[in-house]
Design a protein that fits this description.
The chain has two domains: 253 residues, Rossmann fold (3-Layer(aba) Sandwich); 120 residues, Rossmann fold. The protein is built from 15 helices and ten strands. It is globular. The protein starts with a helix and ends with a helix.
């Protein structure tokens, strides 16, 4: 027999013997996709997940007379979006399925899936009634629990805004307006000046000087930006930042949907950093509108109540609440979350399809703990529609809360997280 095959034969035989002699009480090694301290899995048992999700890729409003076409070089062709404006795209649905498949693998390792029962209410899927939210939740639920047709709640008329997910002002007074505008001015200053360079990049990419709006509109900076509030309406804005946000949003979505870099950028050579800067405009807009302290506890109030209620529901194992970037951003602001770096994403606040995950644990010491993560697919994973698994996971970033002290394993006491949620909820009464 050839010596090479003899060697291979004995190597294989030794491997089989080693496996057969493996002690029966030694469990298969398990790995966490998030970095954990040694012994974490032996010291903590995962009890529950409550997930606040942003919908996945949607189409923007690109029509013949939209602000986008008026501001863009007449010879440039925007991506040909299928379906209706602002609806989840087919790619967005496929990407959400991949995220659901990953969460299935995650929950299977914790023996959560086997505990699903539609009659017990152990799993809950609840989404805003907008098509992009309902379809995102449906795609996620079907991938998480294939073949089980889990219910996705819709509590108002289809394609309208559910009050739980509607980031609207529900307490309005002269004192609130004065305080909110003061907080915005202190945090952001002149709304246009800090992002003037991002405005310039947007203007270059869309070639605004060759657009139908030129010369009446030469720059976003020429229009002062201002915020206003109305009862039972979202905070609103006028001026150049609002116009630039529309362009920033559409370009970011085009970048995700169009994998040809040349077409995505209208023929410009853009770096990843340029795309981060492009997306920063719409994120600045969202931060201005929804993250000032008084505004965040106002607009996020019903959703904060929903999150706390779900976390305190002893029958619930897993909850998905699906809404918008304004929901995730305002909840983070109301909870006084620290800003963190989001590697691999062109969106540095609330990436498309991201999941704000509240995990609760029981420690070996008998104490209840909690951890908050932001889970998202990277820009590369989104553009290539990469499969997500433990071998190619999405990114998970821990979200620290200001003023709360984590233990050596990076966990907060659950009572402290409950306290922070309650404080944000109760702040609404003082507005």
């Amino acid at each position: 027999m050839n010596l090479k095959y003899v060697i291979f034969y004995f190597i294989g035989l030794l491997a089989l013997v080693a496996f057969a002699c493996r002690p029966a009480n030694v469990p298969e090694p398990q790995t966490e996709w998030i970095s954990r301290a040694d012994g974490f899995q032996q010291n903590y048992t995962l009890d529950q997940m409550v997930v606040l999700s942003r919908h996945n890729i949607r189409s923007p409003l690109v029509s013949k007379n939209s602000v986008l076409t008026r501001l863009t070089n007449s010879n440039y062709q925007w991506f040909q979006w299928e379906g209706q404006p602002s609806h989840l795209t087919a790619k967005g649905g496929r990407l959400e399925e991949k995220m659901g498949i990953f969460f299935r693998e995650w929950l299977q390792k914790k023996d959560f899936i086997s505990r699903y029962s539609p009659s017990s209410g152990s799993f809950r899927f609840y989404a805003n009634a907008k098509q992009r939210c309902q379809t995102t939740a449906r795609s996620f639920a079907d991938a998480l629990l294939p073949g089980l047709d889990a219910k996705v709640e819709m509590n108002v008329e289809y394609d309208t805004m559910d009050p739980v997910f509607n980031p609207r002002i529900t307490k309005l007074s002269d004192s609130f307006v004065a305080k909110a505008l003061s907080e915005i001015a202190e945090r952001f200053g002149d709304l246009n000046t800090p992002i003037a360079s991002s405005f310039a990049l947007l203007e270059r990419v869309i070639d605004i000087s060759s657009s139908p709006a030129y010369p009446d509109t030469t720059s976003f900076s020429q229009f002062p930006s201002a915020v206003s509030f109305k009862m039972n309406a979202e905070p609103s804005m006028t001026g150049g930042l609002k116009m630039a946000c529309t362009v920033s949003d559409a370009l970011s979505l085009q970048y995700y949907e169009e994998t040809d870099d040349y077409k995505a950028s209208f023929g410009h050579s853009l770096t990843f950093g340029d795309w981060v800067q492009i997306s920063s405009v719409k994120e600045w807009y969202g931060d201005v509108l929804f993250t000032a302290p008084s505004v965040s506890v106002n607009v996020a109030h019903p959703l904060l109540q929903e999150i706390l209620s779900e976390m305190q529901n002893e029958n619930r194992i897993f909850t998905l609440l699906c809404g918008h970037d304004s929901n995730v951003g305002s909840v983070l602001a109301a909870l006084e979350a620290e800003e963190v770096d989001l590697p691999g994403s062109i969106e540095k606040r609330t990436p498309i399809g991201c999941k704000l995950v509240f995990e609760t644990f029981t420690g070996k010491d008998g104490i209840k703990y909690a951890e908050i993560l932001l889970v998202y697919a990277t820009a590369s994973q989104l553009r290539s529609e990469a499969s997500l698994s433990y071998s190619n996971p999405p990114t998970g970033v821990r979200i620290p809360l200001k003023g709360l002290k984590a233990n050596a394993d990076g966990l907060y006491r659950l009572s402290d997280v409950y306290g922070r949620l309650s404080r944000a909820i109760n702040a609404y009464d003082t507005l």
